[in-house]
Fold:
Amino acid sequence: MTVTVAPVKSNATKPGVRDERRSLYHTGNGRAPGAGQSSPARPPLQDRWLHERLRSRVAVRLSDGKTLTGVLCGYDSYCLTLQTERARPPVLIYKAHVAYVRPEKEPPQGG
Structure:
């Protein structure tokens, strides 16, 4: 018994046609990030907002209604780290459980 396997055809071999399966990242519109743009890609709004508040006091409202306050130590695509008055080391908070984050005024310094 002989089995013949047909080669897989790809659009990448045709001139001017891009094979979308080869792209690591994709924006949902079929183009790679930054493709066809004259200016450099800007970071997402969430990243810019968090970066501006890095090492400052914030209040994090969780989806269960609890609010945590402290200093924003770091963040990535999935988590925030918050240094609270009660916890050492910083608390790791998954963004999926965050309702919102807002800046908080510095507590009054007792003199």
Strands lie at 57-62, 67-75, 79-83, 91-94, 98-103.
